[in-house]
Design a protein that fits this description.
Layout (H helix, E strand, L loop, with lengths): L1 H23 L4 H9 L3 H9 L5 E7 L2 H17 L3 E7 L2 H7 L7 E4 L5 H11 L1 E7 L5 H9 L4 E6 L13 H7 L4 E4 L2 H9 L5 E3 L3 H12 L4 H7 L3 E8 L1 H14 L4 E7 L4 H10 L4 E3 L13 E3 L6 H4 L5 E4 L12 H4 L4 E4 L7 H8 L4 E2 L3 H13 L1 H17 L3 H11 L1
Parallel strand pairs: 1-2, 1-4, 2-3, 4-5, 5-6, 6-7, 8-9, 8-12, 9-11, 10-11, 12-13, 13-14
Helix pairs in contact: 3-6, 4-10, 4-19, 6-7, 12-13, 12-17
Length: about 425
């Protein structure tokens, strides 16, 4: 009974969501990009793939973070499966627009909305030999179609928690979606145990490929002279993928503490004119946007606002302290590993139940979890004023990155044997 109820709600929910997105697209930039990007999607895919007769390996990612998790796995697969074409589908506008020209894949497309007809049509176009789903974004009709055709479909970087509906007595429909995967590679043993509790045994704990990915950035990151000039001899605090709440916390802290040797970089989660103006107001006009920088005048500003997407992982190289955004939003915490690999002293909010790496960092004195603004103020003050403590946090963070590398090799080893 619960299966059919879940299936019904799923189908109706998707249809209502798509109607809503179309309805608000004239008034909402993200919805407009989402809708426009899927116009004539099958026609566009067919045209681009028409003359490419190579076999296909297909990766699906939700957004930018999952794209980066997929990258090291794709790089290793390309060394083994040389004569294949690599196709990535992306669900979110921010992920697609940022990476649509990335050379890691031969083709990058939006994922068409989930339906039986769309799933059949897309699989007919791709005819994939192997499929990889990254972390989550489970779509019933797509995964069901792949299972029906016996196409090996792997879930990588999976992470599950007790409070998810898959593990409730009424979650049978969503359990059935996960059961479509040929094999599941999880980030931790807890996820393997949770899958076993719902009689899914085809899983293995290998870790998170993001550790492999961020380690690569340690040696590949390009120099950003503007960041060097802006930082000078000051301590640099990076507010990464931030929301207004975190920006206000940091602005209030600086207003009360009056540190002279601190510079701030704010890289907001959403980049748009309204958000940029809001940030400028929060920091009392002490800001300059990255796109408007005059290097000769940088010393006049306290806050550098990044008004583009895709630079953040390079900026952490120059930071001493990073306040990672989204930690006070359910499922919102941004990637802490990008800052950790550069030995930053890291802080983040307390809603980390869906982020096992955040728990590991907090438990190993490699990052600081803050409960509220008072807690944030006390901890940031300590980090700024206690150099030994600050350096120890950064050292511990970097060591955890080195310790947790290797997920990619384990995934590739399993796939190649099969």
């Amino acid at each position: 009974m619960f299966y059919y109820i879940g299936f019904t709600f799923y189908v109706i929910g998707i249809k209502l969501y798509n109607i809503l997105i179309i309805a608000i697209s004239p008034f909402n930039k993200r919805a407009k990009i989402f809708t426009k990007g899927r116009e004539k999607i099958f026609e566009n895919i067919a045209i681009k793939l028409k003359t490419d007769t190579r076999k296909t390996i297909w990766f699906h990612v939700s957004s930018l973070g999952e794209f980066e998790q997929a990258r090291p796995v794709i790089e290793k697969l390309k060394l083994i499966y040389i004569d294949y074409k690599y196709v990535i589908t992306v669900y979110s506008p921010s992920g697609f627009e940022t990476r649509k020209n990335d050379k890691i894949a031969d083709y990058i497309f939006y994922l068409p909305n989930d339906s039986k007809k769309n799933a059949e049509q897309l699989v007919d176009l791709f005819i994939p030999e192997m499929v990889f789903w990254v972390k989550y974004d489970f779509w019933f009709f797509y995964l069901n179609e792949l299972k029906k055709r016996n196409i090996p479909t792997y879930l990588i970087a999976a992470s599950f928690n007790n409070d998810q509906i898959y593990f409730k007595f009424y979650g049978s429909f969503l359990k059935s979606i996960i059961a479509n995967f040929t094999y599941i590679f999880t980030q931790n043993l807890k996820s393997v145990d949770l899958l076993k509790s719902i009689k899914i045994y085809n899983s293995l704990s290998v870790g998170d490929p993001r550790f492999d990915r961020v380690y690569e950035t340690l040696v590949q990151t390009e120099e950003l002279e503007i960041l060097n000039t802006f930082k000078g001899n000051n301590l640099l605090i990076v507010l990464g993928s931030s929301y207004a709440l975190e920006e206000k916390m940091l602005a209030n802290f600086l207003l009360n503490q009056m540190y002279l040797n601190i510079k701030i970089v704010v890289a907001p989660h959403f980049v748009g004119e309204e958000r940029l103006i809001e940030i400028e107001n929060i920091f009392n006009k002490q800001t300059v946007r990255y796109s408007r920088v005059n290097a000769n005048l940088l010393s006049n500003y306290k806050v550098l606002v990044i008004d583009n997407i895709g630079m953040l992982n390079k900026i952490y190289k120059y930071a001493n302290i990073s306040f990672i955004g989204g930690g006070f939003v359910h499922k919102g915490l941004h990637n802490i590993l990008e800052a950790a690999v550069f030995g930053n002293a890291i802080l983040f909010g307390n809603k980390i139940g869906y982020f096992p790496e955040a728990t590991e960092f907090s438990n190993n004195e490699a990052a600081v979890l803050v409960e509220n603004e008072v807690d944030f103020n006390e901890n940031l003050k300590n980090i700024i004023e206690n150099e030994t403590y600050r350096n120890n946090l950064g050292t511990n963070a970097k060591e955890l990155i080195l310790k947790n590398r290797g997920a990619t090799e384990k995934i590739i080893s399993y796939i190649s044997k099969k």
